[in-house]
Amino acid sequence: MEFLKYSSNQSKDVTAIIAPAFEDSVPQQTKSLDKETSVISTGNKQGFSGKKGETFDIFNPNTGKRIMLIGLGKKGELSDETLRRAYSSAFSSLKSLPNGVVQVLLPDVLPGETKEVTFAIALAAYEFDRYRNEKNRIRIKKVLIATKSPEGTIREAKVVADAVNFTRDIANLPPSVGTPTLFEKTARKIEGVSVKAFGRNDFIRLGMGGLEGVSRAAREAAKLLILEYGPRDKKPLLIVGKGITFDSGGISIKPAEGMDEMKFDKCGASAIVGTMKLLSDLKVDKHVIGIAPLTENLPGGNAYKPGDILTHYNGVTSEVLSTDAEGRLVLADAISYGVKNFKPSAVIDLATLTGACVVALGSNYAGMMGNDDSLKNRIKKASKNSWERVWELPIDSDFQDQIKSKVADIKNTGGREGGAETAGAFLSRFVGDTPWVHLDIAGTAWTHKNGPGRAYLPAGATGYGVRLLYEFIRTE
Ligand code: BES
Ligand code: MN
Ligand code: ZN
Fold this sequence. Notes:
Elements: E1 2-5, E2 16-21, H1 28-31, H2 39-42, E3 55-60, E4 65-71, H3 80-94, E5 100-105, H4 113-124, E6 140-146, H5 151-171, H6 180-188, E7 193-198, H7 200-206, H8 209-214, E8 223-229, E9 237-241, E10 243-247, H9 267-281, E11 288-297, E12 309-311, E13 317-319, H10 327-342, E14 346-351, H11 355-361, E15 365-370, H12 373-386, E16 389-392, H13 397-402, E17 410-411, H14 419-428, E18 436-440, E19 446-447, E20 460-461, H15 466-475
Parallel strand pairs: 1-6, 2-4, 2-5, 5-6, 9-11, 9-14, 10-11, 13-17, 14-18, 15-16
Antiparallel strand pairs: 3-4, 7-8, 8-11, 12-13, 15-18, 19-20
Helix pairs in contact: 3-4, 4-5, 5-9, 9-15, 10-14, 12-15
The chain binds ligand BES, manganese (II) ion (MN) and zinc ion.
Ligand BES binds near residues 265, 322, 352 and 358.
């Protein structure tokens, strides 16, 4: 599906038009369609009032064009999210339009309309259907956006959306396919990104006790992937993503119900790979290191056990109380390795780390923790501009007290209370003085079904983090 800027000489190819309408007025662009059909301004709208979520379909037999009016509510209350919802669901209902060339009219009220509408449509076009005989057949060939913005705005938004869909595609892979090896192969195909891969021998040689312990009973070869992009003379930003390709819980095994969803425990790592690809696709002039600790977490006769004590890359020791709190153990090594060897200006990690975060914040906000107010504020700003929402959680000294161990420096769970925060407090022991933000994406990384009206978020992995990281990196 191609996205282009609309110009009037394409008018004859157009088979459908998506046209905005408000409750209190009709935008000029929509009014001018009266040349096509007089239905719009003559008031014969069959109860269509322009409220949010309403649509009205008109077929003009003279031109053969379908016109879909979409309600955007009151003009003065228009938001980017209203646009995303309205345009993505309009697109979804036109998906099977034969040989479709869709002209998209914008209300011309908000500055980011071209970008947001391109995102919404390109993200709504995604479905993970590679294992299905019945495919998601989009018959729309072209999306022509009628905008005053330069064509480059559409092009950039399309590349960003493609990177989000690329991320979704890796994260949605079944756990026996989306392995550490698959991640390495995928990363090596990204132009302009150099890739280094450590294996279990390296974990032992380098003293990465967390990665060594968690990967001990894995049958798929575990890896620590290190991706590098951009000008080496600048201090890098370090981004780290949890890559548990399947989290059974290990010896502290999870209940069977819903365990399939633990294939999504690799969403952090997927977002890192997707972001690195995006930086390369858009030739962003920033130095970024992406690190992904990748392994499956399985039980077995040789598995690490509750009671084990692991020594991490920076020398900190941790007592394993639950082998199901494995994410923090592998991130500990990945983060401390990155901090020591690359001396980054800042560290951002993304991890499907705790069920507690999902309970606290639900599925629309990632939990944000960290050690630096300026960095947190810059992340918040990037979050506002990318609609990948974050909400701050505390990790002060009381949480540090909760993870003190009698037999090691720290323990890998602090009990049920404040589960997201004690996980964040654990990670803080591996960043030193480097400004750092941890994003617990356990709630935002995948969805169970299309949210009401949110056609741009199809069921499965969401690709959360790519747009946020891109917005952050681009504006740093
Ligand atoms: N990957 C899970 C966290 C998770 C659970 C994400 C459910 C999304 C949905 C993580 O490895 C885990 O098992 N965490 C435990 C930690 C506990 C043992 C301290 C949890 O949240 O229960
Ligand atoms: Mn776990
Ligand atoms: Zn996990």
